[in-house]
Amino acid sequence: MRGSTLTFIDILLAIILPPLGVFLKFGCEAEFWICVLLTLFGWLPGIVYAIYVLTK
C-alpha cells in the first residue's frame, strides 16, 4: 500500500507542478531539465512527460 500511495502523491504533484514531481524523484538530472523545458513550452507537455517518467 505504501508504494501505491507514494505513486499517487508523485502523480498528483506532476499534475499540479510537473517539474517538482520529477525533481523529488530524480533530483537535478536530465529528466528534471527536460520537464522544465517542456513545461515552459506548455503546461500539458510538461504534465504528460512528468507522468510518463514517474510511472515508467
UniProtKB/TrEMBL annotation:
<protein>
    <submittedName>
        <fullName>Hydrophobic protein RCI2B</fullName>
    </submittedName>
</protein>
<dbReference type="GO" id="GO:0016020">
    <property type="term" value="C:membrane"/>
</dbReference>
<dbReference type="InterPro" id="IPR000612">
    <property type="entry name" value="PMP3"/>
</dbReference>
<feature type="transmembrane region" description="Helical">
    <location>
        <begin position="30"/>
        <end position="54"/>
    </location>
</feature>
<dbReference type="Pfam" id="PF01679">
    <property type="entry name" value="Pmp3"/>
</dbReference>
<feature type="transmembrane region" description="Helical">
    <location>
        <begin position="7"/>
        <end position="24"/>
    </location>
</feature>
<comment type="similarity">
    <text>Belongs to the UPF0057 (PMP3) family.</text>
</comment>
<keyword id="KW-0472">Membrane</keyword>
<keyword id="KW-1133">Transmembrane helix</keyword>
<keyword id="KW-0812">Transmembrane</keyword>
